[in-house]
Amino acid sequence: MAGETVLVIDDDAAVRTVLTRALMQAGYRVRSGANAATMWELAASDEGDVMITDVVLPDAEAFEVLPRIRRRRPELPIIVMSARNTVMTAIRAAERGAFEYLPKPFDLSEMLEVVRRALEHKKRGGLQEGAATEEGDERLPLIGRSRAMQEIYRIIARLTQTDLTVMILGESGTGKELVARVLHDYGKRRKGPFVAINMAAIPRELIESELFGHEKGAFTGAVARHAGCFERARGGTLFLDEIGDMPLEAQTRLLRVLQEGEFTTIGGTRPIKADVRIIAATHRDLRQLIAAGQFREDLFYRLNVATVRLPPLRERLEDIPDLVAHFVEEAAKEGLPRKVFLPEAIERLKRHRWPGNVRELENIVRRILAIHAEEEIGPEIVDAELEEFTPASGGLPEGEEGELSQLSAFMERWLQAHFSNHGDELPPQGLYHRVLREVERPLIAAALAATGGNQVKAAQLLGINRNTLRTHMKNLEIDVMRLPRMNGKA
Ligand SMILES: Nc1ncnc2c1ncn2[C@@H]1O[C@H](COP(=O)(O)OP(=O)(O)OP(=O)(O)O)[C@@H](O)[C@H]1O
Ligand SMILES: [Mg+2]
């Protein structure tokens, strides 16, 4: 060990002691301080090879001093730790050029590892300039202080400082779109537009012209030139939502654009430079789609440069109280009455499985606020709401009839949620075909997989004509050669 010096700034003596002991054991020298004034003095006297600092200090916030230190000591890596644990703390740290952000309480061995990395980084030539920005407002775009979310905040904070393509994965309602917006709003391109396109909500035959635009007269119905998403998002972020639903031809075209950095409109000849940051999202298992021949593997690797994997709500139940409080506040801004959720009511919410994740929680909170007159929300109300909107407990109903009735009950709930997601507006046109497609694709794929790709048997199983099956497979872009096998039957 070279005996480098670590500067430790924290007003909590216990934290200073623990850190000092661990760092000295690891062979470092330590200088410590308890406030922002000392933090500046130590840095300005050119001491230390790496700094670890708390955020909230008695005389000032570390973030106020950090830009000054960064100017004076651009080579000094700074590790920020905080018990505030919000996405804004993480982002602010990244914006101020912090080397790394660690939520408190931190793991000592992790901290030592970060210190080691920081020193190595310093040796290799220091840090790049952090993008200084004006203060954002303090309203938090993302709620949750669980470990799982802390990890997400660290990744987000790092990604806001880059232009990398990001893939956001997570079940429905876990906050994928919200994260995409945060990446844009706090990223380098925040002054540019954020353009979102949902592959599952646009008729498939229109997707390419929506993405790349078309010239007047490019096809029947193209009465005027239309600027596509790539053009409208210039200088900003293009959010490709539900990327798993992108038709194969559009995937091929997108891949080419990503490889070449330019695109042409449909019917156009002049290549246009693509100047967008791409963020893609899906709730589907892309590897499975790749195996089924429905998603291009090469496109997957192009898009999956950095991954944000959002945890389902059931894996971070401890965030429920914060989320409920947040949704009550949000609803109050829209004029819904403010109510208190009693601790037992919160306990009940924590016991639920939340298949619809944060969106489901948000909907339930809003419904309770809107429907119930009580000032205090007790467990009975929560139980009643959860029971009404979730499948009967006690496992699957008996027999095929029962299972099928579950499917239609699920559809009803899904449709209810779908309509309510669009608020006062109707969902995009073509709902019938979008829904049927979503049912047909897994149905036909499952039948083919279960019969080892034998189309005659699959058609029999489904009770449809073999030619009809062929037509569906073609329309749904199901490639039988690449289907995974099911149940070991073949
Ligand atoms: N961490 C969070 N903090 C606050 N609100 C959240 C959080 N995560 C999700 N939400 C809210 O939950 C709702 C669903 O989030 P969002 O639309 O981003 O989910 P999604 O993953 O895109 O879902 P889908 O796959 O169904 O499109 C939104 O109203 C969003 O504001
Ligand atoms: Mg979404």
Topology:
Layout: E1 5-9, H1 13-25, E2 29-33, H2 36-44, E3 50-54, H3 62-72, E4 78-82, H4 87-95, E5 100-103, H5 108-123, H6 147-160, E6 166-169, H7 176-185, E7 194-198, H8 207-212, H9 229-232, E8 237-241, H10 248-260, E9 262-263, E10 272-273, E11 277-282, H11 286-291, H12 297-303, E12 306-309, H13 320-333, E13 340-341, H14 343-351, H15 357-371, E14 376-377, H16 379-389, H17 399-421, H18 431-450, H19 455-462, H20 466-475
Parallel strand pairs: 1-2, 1-3, 3-4, 4-5, 6-11, 6-12, 7-8, 8-11, 13-14
Antiparallel strand pairs: 9-10
Helix pairs in contact: 2-3, 4-6, 6-7, 13-15, 14-16, 18-19, 19-20
Walkthrough of the structure:
This protein has 490 residues and is of the alpha/beta class. The protein folds into four domains: 5-123, Response regulator (Rossmann fold); 162-309, Rossmann fold; 313-389, Helicase, Ruva Protein, domain 3 (Orthogonal Bundle); 430-482, Homeodomain-like (Arc Repressor Mutant, subunit A), CATH 1.10.10. Helices cover 47% and strands 11% of the residues. It is built from 20 helices and 14 strands. It has helices spanning 13-25, 36-44, 62-72, 87-95, 108-123, 147-160, 176-185, 207-212, 229-232, 248-260, 286-291, 297-303, 320-333, 343-351, 357-371, 379-389, 399-421, 431-450, 455-462, 466-475, and strands spanning 5-9, 29-33, 50-54, 78-82, 100-103, 166-169, 194-198, 237-241, 262-263, 272-273, 277-282, 306-309, 340-341, 376-377. The strands form four sheets. A five-stranded parallel beta sheet has the order 2-1-3-4-5, sandwiched between helices. Strand 4, helix 4 (87-95) and strand 5 form a beta-alpha-beta unit. It starts with a strand and ends in a 15-residue tail after the last helix. It binds adenosine-5'-triphosphate and magnesium ion. Residues 176-177, 241 line the site of magnesium ion.
